[in-house]
Amino acid sequence: MVTVVKVGGSLLKLGPPENILSDFCKALQEEKLVLVHGGGFEVTEVAEKLGKKQEFVVSPEGIRSRYTDRETVDIYTMVMKGKINSEIVLALEGKGVKTVGIAGFDGKLLVAERKKRLLTVDSRGRRVALEGGYTGKIISVNSNILETLLKEDFVPVVSPIALGTEGEPLNVDGDRAAAYIAGGLKAERVVFLTDVNGVLIDGQLVKELTLADASASIRKVGHGMDKKILAAVEAIEQGAKESIISSGSLDNPITNSLRGQNRTVIRK
Predict the structure, then answer these.
(1) pLDDT digits (tens, 9 = 90+) for 39-82
(2) Shortest CA distance to 67 belongs to which of 103, 115, 111?
(3) pLDDT digit string (tens) for 177-195?
(4) CATH number at residue 252
(5) pTM of the model
(6) How many other C-beta atoms are found inside a 10 Å radius of the C-beta of residue 95?
(7) Are the C-beta atoms of residues 206 and 20 closer than 8 Å to each other?
(8) Is residue 159 a contact partner of residue 12, using CB atoms and an 8 Å limit?
(9) Which has the closest alpha carbon to 187: 5, 23, 27, 22?
(10) How far apart are CA 145 and CA 101, in angstroms?
(11) How many CA atoms lie within 13 A of 176 on its CB side?
(12) Which residues have a Cβ under 8 Å from the Cβ of 5 and sit 6 or more positions away?
């Protein structure tokens, strides 16, 4: 039984959180785990310290994302793979967990097609087309590399940087990377750990959603949660049994995600 856990960048501002790492180790006693991490906050911080101002765009559907030019994708790769991924691997190894850190471009784990253009909405609500930069849409997952690691009792820690079809690194959304990985592995579930208890609509926690209800709720939630719901739906459509959105700030966040009350579960 495999569970894919996505740890959002908002939870990694001060390094790998102890509450998640400790509970992660406990969960390993019962099932195989794959960890996919974010880190957008730290990418922005490092980029701006280096003098590279970060730009964000909003799609006509209301989805907010980073505009990634060549300089930004280099910084993104440096921070995500070189720093954040390494910190998580070292922290888990320090707890006695056999861990392997990889990026999506390693072993063609994630292959993506570079977006030729991005359709965005400006501050006046007008649609504007931009050159696509170094962002990508995932088109394939090499789940064999993860299955091999899991079979040998290694925990894969994945940075969401895909391999472009022309051999270039591409920024892909971490939530959607986790979704594609969960689908490729036909995982029992994918867990999205974030900074809220789950999907909130009109201030109320929604504990269960069908795929149809989840898709319909995307415009009712704020930036960040909309991408998580989109990814949660994609994971199930591609073969995962269920998706869970829950808080990574609790004492036992993964245990709560699997069996607790403060979470949103999405199923067919």
Answers:
(1) 999 999 999 999 999 999 888 877 788 999 999 999 999 999 99
(2) 115
(3) 999 999 999 999 999 999 8
(4) 3.40.1160.10
(5) 0.94
(6) 13
(7) no
(8) no
(9) 5
(10) 12
(11) 20
(12) 24, 33, 34, 35, 36, 178, 190, 191, 193, 254
Residues spanned by the domain of 238: 2-267
C-alpha 231/C-alpha 63 separation (Å) is 12
What is the rounded (10 degree) CA torsion for 65, 71, 74, 78?
A: -90
Q: What total number of domains does the chain contain?
A: 1
Dihedrals phi, psi of 4, to nearest 5 degrees: -100, 130
- Output the DSSP codes for 70-138: HHHHHHHHIIIIIIIIHHHHHHHHTTT--EEEEETTGGGSEEEEEPSEEEEE-TTS-EEEEE-TTBEEE
Alpha-helical (H) ranges within the chain are 18-27, 40-49, 70-77, 86-93, 143-151, 174-185, 211-217, 225-237, 253-259
- What digits encode the pLDDT tens for the residues 127-141? 888 888 999 999 999
For 168, half-sphere exposure in the C-beta direction (CA atoms, 13 angstrom radius) is 18
Placement of tokens 């910084």 in the chain: 75
d(CA 251, CA 246): 12
For range 34-40, the mean pLDDT = 96
Angle, nearest 10°, between helix axes 143-151 and 174-185? Answer: 70
The Cα-based distances of 30 to 76, 90, 125, 148 in angstroms read 34, 22, 49, 19
User: How large is the average pLDDT for residues 164-181?
Assistant: 96
